[in-house]
């Protein structure tokens, strides 16, 4: 196990964004984190990244509470804007290199070229899809053990999405863990080993994609429809 979330709760005033979420992540697996808007995906990821403190419960990274050390090995890509307008793609790499010991400039250059970006492009002139690609490139250029990608496919066109997911998967070692949130359920299903379903801050369901297919003859999309369409009583 690489990460354990033990009855983790986050409250913002009277709003409970994440409600007693207990789950375990195994090394080498790709997790699809699914759920409608406001179901708590981002809040949970931010807590794992050490950016938001749980109100209750604890998160253990390799058996130790998350903190300064875990931040060195957990790479988080947020949905929020990242870069200063004046930066070029090359400046973004240098900026990250200064921040993260595990940042590999070589890996960054490879990711940039796969994303069809060039080093002299200015951040302020990038389209939203190109900006999304740059965020992925800079995040995946870290040699982390756990990557949390919050909606990485947002703003990226249909044909580029498959290529980008492929680049993300190729950028990691086989024992590395990836958690990807997205509303593009069927696209994530194609690459995910496991699915985590969040609903109103609660962990509504969790399953292995292959087991779901073999044992219940269902796809992740089918289960998604059951959980969010009819109350979520099904357990996989
Ligand atoms: N800083 C904050 N202050 C107050 N409420 C917040 C804050 N951040 C999140 N929330 C609330 O917590 C709930 C969960 O939000 P969160 O962003 O984690 O959901 P999400 O599943 O990532 O949604 P989306 O798919 O829209 O990104 C929402 O009701 C949201 O309004």
From TrEMBL:
Keywords: ATP-binding, Nucleotide-binding, Transport
InterPro entries the UniProt entry points to: AAA+_ATPase, ABC_transporter-like_ATP-bd, ABC_transporter-like_CS, ABC_Transporter_VariousFunc, P-loop_NTPase
GO molecular function: ATP binding
PROSITE patterns for the chain: ABC_TRANSPORTER_1 (PS00211), ABC_TRANSPORTER_2 (PS50893)
Domain ABC transporter: 3-225
Top-rank taxon: Bacteria
Pfam families, per database record: ABC_tran
Gene3D superfamilies: P-loop containing nucleotide triphosphate hydrolases (3.40.50.300)
Protein name, UniProt field: ABC transporter ATP-binding protein
Species of provenance: Blautia faecis
